[in-house]
Amino acid sequence: MDNVDYKILEYLKANSRTKASTISKEIHLSVSAVIERIHKLETSGIIKNYTVVLDESKIGNDTSALMEVSLDHPKFYESFTRAIKENKNINFCYYLTGDFDFMLKILCKSSEDLEKIHNNIKNLEGVSKTKTYYILKSVKD
Amino acid sequence: MDNVDYKILEYLKANSRTKASTISKEIHLSVSAVIERIHKLETSGIIKNYTVVLDESKIGNDTSALMEVSLDHPKFYESFTRAIKENKNINFCYYLTGDFDFMLKILCKSSEDLEKIHNNIKNLEGVSKTKTYYILKSVKD
DNA sequence: CGTGAAATTATATAAGT
DNA sequence: ACTTATATAATTTCACG
Prior knowledge:
Two copies of one chain form a homodimer. Chain A has a four-stranded antiparallel sheet, covered by helices on one side. Chain A is α+β, with helices and mostly antiparallel strands. In chain A, 39% of the residues lie in helices and 32% in strands. Chain A starts with a helix and ends with a strand. Chain A contains five helices and five strands, in the order H-H-H-E-E-H-E-E-H-E. In chain A, helix 2 (20-27) crosses helix 3. The first copy, chain A, is elongated and about 55 Å long. Chain A binds a DNA duplex through helix 3.
């Protein structure tokens, strides 16, 4: 990971479909060298994946919320996190220090949808306390 | 946005550098048609961007936290959100209903780094109350 | 909307510095 | 590690169903 790798990552972060030939011109390195470096970033695991950023509201996902969750006992950690990972309406989930155990984000089509998802999570084994905040606006994402 | 578009998006979500020729074989549609549909998804804004998912810990970003922020008055919204958008260590920021106004995520190299970023945010104009939670583990992201 | 073929670009491979 | 040259493969363009 030298400075050249960082520059390549900056181009890929801005647009992961940027052609190696474009990056090559920008950073004054041969196309082969750029591709070789990208492959190394991939195989070393620094690049985990390439993905697409969607305008969720344009495909009907207009409702989102943050949810705090606490578990009764650490023994429920495995089953809880498994359920979270499987739930397609949950974007992220972090395990935290402090007043509660997890913070997760829900993204869905409607408030009725949100209610269902919310209830599903509340009813997972070991879930004791929850608190939910509607997202009014995504300032940055 | 028909079912074919959804399928294409699923492939691109899983790997945005998937070749149109690969998708073509999977969904039994000509390469040209796949590319045409992708272009339409791009120009319509459904696809906002292509990006790369990095293993942040492998590039030294080992520390992350969630931070709740409240503002004294709505008049500080513009300047606050501008500062948030400019801060490269802030991954997301949501404007919420409830006990506080914003929830944001900080990603950085160390706890000393976190302390600085945390203080910068606390000292932004209009910031009244904050509360910070260390992220122990990213269960899902 | 979709297909298929030709033209253009990109990527992969390999040999040399 | 980088470069150049060549081979293979992908994308773009366009005429047509």
